[in-house]
Amino acid sequence: MTQHVYAAEIGDTAKLLADDPFWLILIKVVAIFAFLVVMTLFMINWERKVVARMQQRPGPNRVGPNGWLQSLADGLKLAFKEDIRPVLADKWVFFLAPVISCIPAFLAFSVIPLAGEVSLFGEQTALQLVDLPVGVLVVLACSSIGVYGIVLSGWASGSPYPLLSSLRAAAQVISYEIALGLSVVAVIMFTGSLSTGDIVGAQATTVLGVLPGWFGILLFPSFVIFVVSMVGETNRAPFDLPEAESELVGGFHTEYSSLKFALFFLAEYVNMVTLSAMATTLFLGGYHAPWSGDFMNTGWWGLLWFIGKTLGFLFLFIWLRGTLPRLRYDQFMKLGWKVLVPTSLVWIMAVAVIRTGAIQQLSTAQRLIALGVVVGLVLLVSFLLPDKKVQDTKGVPLAGSGFPVPPLDLVVPKAAPKRKVKVANIPADKAAVTTGKEAE
Length: 440
Description:
- By secondary structure, the protein is mainly alpha-helical.
- Helices cover 60% and strands 3% of the residues.
- It contains 15 helices and five strands.
- It has a three-stranded antiparallel beta sheet, with no helix packed on it.
- The protein starts with a strand and ends with a helix.
- Its EC number is 7.1.1.-.
- It is a multi-pass membrane protein.
- One of its GO terms (biological process) is aerobic respiration.
């Protein structure tokens, strides 16, 4: 690998941000907030246009130039709609739930570097609000806290369907948060730091003088696991089970309207932007160009590279929604617990063997042998585990994960037996009297 020196190297971003005056920090806060709100308005309209193009129909084309102001009109409409609260809803929790969902989504973006060293109003700074030593953990913690808003909204609505949806969301986020966190471990092992600025600086290299030294290439399994977990974490299709319209009416926000509903919508799309930006930071070199050199790799050029890579991940969200059907709940949980989490653990052990071999200066043959032994032991243990068949109390087989599922083929139930009418034995004299009365 050949190391390229950038203006903000590993560890220098935090020192650069420490000298920012208060007014510059305030400008960055307002700019990040405005950027996320504008990206939400853009994403809603872009998603509708892309999905419409996939389905060969016109999308929004009335409001504004080519329909690009439709999201703004929808936002104004939501602001002026009547705010309805169900009678059985908990007043304060019902009000605070969308706020709890929205605030962590904005807060997580504060540790993501948008560009390197730039000159802003005569001050040398980095396009990042703060570079914490545990920046990666801040993003993971904020994405975990956001689920509290979903759970509380379902509980406070006073309706069974939002409650079921919120419980689904809790199980879903907990499951995929584990896989998401494990996929980042390999990046931390290669970088030796939890700082997002250090992780971006560590990817400012080239492999064999041609390929960029992005962790998306060097740690490709971690990259795939992170992308899949990212979609499940944001409750997006094909993992949008908390909002399954065919099963749960409208999901955890069924009873919400007006600005409260708009806050849930805003939180979902801001989470998409934040996790897309995090994937860019961890695996695609952040604000660095795909090639080395000073041209188009310093100053404000980094912001353009960062936004372009983030838009690529956002397009992936839209593409999946317009292509794949919704998964069944047992399939979704099986993918998280039986595929993503074990694969992450095996890959972490493999990365540990590779890093240990590099530190101990082992030969290539010794590294491959050690890696093969680790992978072989894991596969052997997985094959020896028996596949337990689960049955319910009536002896009906369930799915392998224990969740009741509908029959896989069409089963026509047998027709109910015909009801036999019992005729009472009536004496002859009473029968004659009855017959006479009927004749009269």
